[in-house]
TrEMBL record:
PANTHER family, A to Z: HISTIDINE BIOSYNTHESIS BIFUNCTIONAL PROTEIN, HISTIDINE BIOSYNTHESIS BIFUNCTIONAL PROTEIN HIS7
Location of the Phosphoribosyl-AMP cyclohydrolase domain: 25-97
Name the record gives this protein: Histidine biosynthesis bifunctional protein HisIE
Record-listed E.C. numbers: 3.5.4.19, 3.6.1.31
MF-aspect GO terms: phosphoribosyl-AMP cyclohydrolase activity; phosphoribosyl-ATP diphosphatase activity
InterPro entries assigned: PRib_AMP_CycHydrolase_dom (IPR002496), PRib_AMP_CycHydrolase_sf (IPR038019)
NCBIfam families, per the entry: PRK00051.1 (NF000768)
GO BP terms: L-histidine biosynthetic process
Protein family (similarity comment): In the C-terminal section; belongs to the PRA-PH family.
Reactions mediated catalytically: 1-(5-phospho-beta-D-ribosyl)-ATP + H2O = 1-(5-phospho-beta-D-ribosyl)-5'-AMP + diphosphate + H(+); 1-(5-phospho-beta-D-ribosyl)-5'-AMP + H2O = 1-(5-phospho-beta-D-ribosyl)-5-[(5-phospho-beta-D-ribosylamino)methylideneamino]imidazole-4-carboxamide
Metabolic or biological pathway, per its Swiss-Prot or TrEMBL entry: Amino-acid biosynthesis; L-histidine biosynthesis; L-histidine from 5-phospho-alpha-D-ribose 1-diphosphate: step 2/9; Amino-acid biosynthesis; L-histidine biosynthesis; L-histidine from 5-phospho-alpha-D-ribose 1-diphosphate: step 3/9
Organism: Alterisphingorhabdus coralli
Amino acid sequence: MPKFDANGLVSAVVTDADNGMVLVIAYMNEEAITKTRETGRAHFWSRSRQKLWLKGETSGHFLNVEEMRIDCDQDAIWMIAKPDGPTCHTGVPSCFYRRFTDDGSLERV
């Protein structure tokens, strides 16, 4: 198992299996990792709601995990997944849909 932080969490980054785009960064606890491995669908720990959640449980936009890896320090997980639709709750493919401009403002990409 990973080396969880003091809250029992480990960060997890999810990339698109088809194009390598970073889709989302979230947190997982031991239960989320177990459920993800059992079902093949990404589960996370919601820090705001303080509960386990299956990504896509309300939207239908699941993240179908093809591979899970852990980094050399065992404190971060990388999941390679095929999304069933937009990953971000805003309806766009990736949660990383804004970039900083030269003047420091944000623009949508």
